[in-house]
């Protein structure tokens, strides 16, 4: 029976550590806040038998998605210095590179978002020119797609843009200090894109990307899941959500509220 | 003889019953004749022994009782998993109806109350503890749900530390109630934790540990030899679980690396790495067979056999599948098995001769 006592002590200790960390995270030290909308914290689809709801992080790379991508891309174009810091094309293109732990810097709105919009507008102009030169079915569909993607970016896509990546957090925190806009450094895995010639990497976030909603928050947000259909532009956001990031880097949804009119 | 665990008690009971049956045969064939008083004393002594074993260890005293016991073990195994799944889905369905403070209270209380249940049931249960074992499985499920959902509530990123907690908890319950299934679960958590931690120290994302199987080599070897260092005599079947599960995990790692050299840290070409691990695979499985025969570990012998032939057939596939007619390929596999049977048969005759000579 002594072993069962030890088991009870283990349960109490494990829960104590988790709850202690959560308390320190929320009530001790600096708390960063990001005021986001459904564009950045979407409501995922859930099964009818699941009692809990959460918000899912939406973000995108700083490279416009091409015609085959569904509303957004996760490719991030790095500066020469950042790409060299990863090891250059020789290292990034190696198959082992994608197994390494890395970090990515996300910036909310501001110049990175404006630059991305400009890329999508350029894609629309290119599609219009192609259609004007040759009014084929393919060009017509490509133009429709380009316009739909631009509309999605303007009204519904995430404004959290990944602008840089590195193997450690320090260079990204230094770079983040140059932005006035809210920013966030998250753990990720990087892998090569194509032949690694364009200093682009494909980013997959590895940390928490679903944020729990309490019962009260879920009741305040009695909405259908965020719609994402490949043949329709993303809808405008229906709610605001304030995401707090505590001193230990653990995020939580502080507030959610439906938008009265436009968000 | 000291009877430290239920398996040994069962063997003692089987020996007594076998002795009684053989004695009857010898008497009926006129080979041996005991005086009535001697016979009576032996019978009384054996009856007392069997009664003591039944009360102390709930041993089976008849063949049909043993078959029922086996059935009860299977049913308790399935029942444990079903009840654990029921607890999990119950949480999943009704969770969102509770306020956060109540969710935390339920999560923390669940494994603690289930532990109280385990203690209470163990006191009422027989020596075989079928119900207490089910309760222990449910308690483990409650802890997993506790840690997982608490992490979800507060948006903790997944961490290998949780695996260490699961391993220790499962291990404590396994040793408290002699639950072999929980020991196996604890071992799997240990493999996963050590592998994940070593992956993290190497700069890998810990969930990518499966892409570098070499992280699992040391923990599997350590746990294989653990029963030789720390006696598991008092816990029926634990040594076998340690050895078989560790050997299986080790051989699986070698099998993967013998076909996927890219997953290795070794700074050689993939072909060389695969060759090295193929040789290692044969060596380890043959070594396991030899060690199992020497030490009297039949489960290790069986596991070594399985993997030896798996490695062999993998090589045959690499060499001959593409260009041999399929009928000939499978004929070769069958002939190899027959050859192995002949070798083992000779080996068995040799060891029996040796044993007969020693007697």
Automatic annotation (TrEMBL), chain A:
It holds the Pfam family DUF4824. It comes from the Bacteria. This is DUF4824 family protein.
UniProtKB/TrEMBL annotation, chain B:
Residues 47-181 form the DUF2157 domain. The keyword Plastid does not apply. The keyword Transmembrane helix applies. Pfam families: DUF2157. The chain crosses the membrane at residues 74-95, 101-122, 134-154, 160-177, 182-204, 216-235, 242-260, 275-293, 300-321, 327-344. Keywords: Membrane, Transmembrane, Transmembrane helix. InterPro entries: DUF2157 (IPR018677). It comes from the Bacteria. This is DUF2157 domain-containing protein.
